[in-house]
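Quick start: load a record and inspect it. Here is Membrane protein insertase YidC:
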Amino acid sequence: MENLRPILWLSLAFVLFLMWQAWNQDYGVRPEPPRAVDPTAEETELPPEDVPEAPVAEADPVDPSAIPEALPEPTRRQVTVRTDLLDLAIDTRGGTLVRADLLDFPVDLGEPSVPVRLFDERVRGYVAQSGLTHDRIADIDAATRAPSHHAEFRVDADRFEMADGEDSLRVPMTWTSEDGTVRVTKTFVFQRGTHLFEIEHQVENLSDQPWIGRQYRQLRHGPTPSRASFFLYTFTGAAYFDGRYNKESFESLRDSPIQQRLQGGWISVIEHYFMSAWVPFEDEVNSMYARAVPGATGTEYLIGLHSEPVTIAPGEVGEFTSRIWVGPKTQAELREISQGLELTVDYGIFTFLAKPLFWLLRVIHDFVGNWGWSIVFLTILIKLAFFHLSATSYRSMAKMRAVAPKLQALKERYKDDKQRMNTALMELYKKEKINPLGGCLPILVQIPVFIALYWVLLESVELRQAPWWLWIQDLSTRDPYFILPILMGLTMIIQYKLNPPPMDPIQRKIFMALPVVFTVFFAFFPAGLVLYWFTNNLFSIGQQYVITRKIDAAGGKKD
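Running the structure step on this input writes:
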């Protein structure tokens, strides 16, 4: 049992090593981005599978297949749209969102003017497409009756901007069928202060026949490896909600495409702290599909929704409305938009612990206004919650330290008889009222909290680029000057001095090396995690020092 404590510390060191490897994989040297793709060339190479086929008459539309060939391509251009939170580029071909910059989230604190880019057609083939399909009627070409994302829209301006004092912005585009019997106005509707906006398709049936059609919405993403593991959960892939949260890696869609009906719910593409999501209204019924398709950047991936048919009588006007979120995974906002959308902030198997930790952090932050100090106060609360457990442990360790000479004498006396030595040790522990496993409790308590907090820092965009104090300006990345890891290493050395020294010389060397090993690992961990461990060590040292002094003063006899 005496060997259990070093085993636990070595296990924690191994866990740290795995976490360090995972963290380095995600935040280490990145390969060069793929070659920029000419968006015009990409569109001409798009396969017919990239739009769900409108069914014949009343057939069920859950099986997406081909769209008729697009009409000859007219002149294309991009329209820029700027709100208080978003800077977008919309291609006039199809009204496709081909670029989305998040103005309130810089890529790096050193370059605050360079925003995070979510949609990125040229580099990653990541776009949001939407359009209409027409249910086929005999002798009528459906492609001429409804504008897919291949259709060319017309727009009156090249730039739209939400002016100061305005709370909304509308960006209209129009399309008219070749024979002039159908006119569609596609309007992007933005509101101030949110990353959620709407896309309206207003259909005017100018013919003498009923128009029967559906809207579709889809997210398209180029090939991107997903860095997901037990200790690293920067998932990049598709997700959807059908009453429960489902996520699919892009790779899995190659062999297992998905088709199902969806009432309400949502579909999304997730990238670490950020996501895009098509969010239907609760009473909507859609066919959901997700699959791999060939594309200009290699194998690309679609996840989309295809609505139920709508009939518009001759001379009447009908409307389709869809909602899309393009922004960060902020839990409070996502929870208000649609059921289950906040589940995209996924802490994995430690969700049961990470969620209450984040909730408590959030409550503390509402009072102190700083995420760094919130971590400090959270650590104090955790220490208070386990105060008596830790005190019992430190008493056992202090008593072990006081009886160390007796332990050494027993080991010398029975060094050739392991069984008698263990029996004598147990009798001594019983006589001195020492729990030999007591010293393991602080480690056992810290490990799950430590890993859960690691995931909170990794997944919660609220802590991304959050400053603490002085040189720590981003709690989600490493300490730029390694000051906190070094201080943390010093606290581990102090703790080693307070603990009873191991009798075994090999164990003694292991414990002496652990502060160095942990300092190296922590040097590359997020500063918020190091801050938690450092604060925990400080309060542990204070508590252990007081208890050790009391036990030493009493000669190791009193409880």
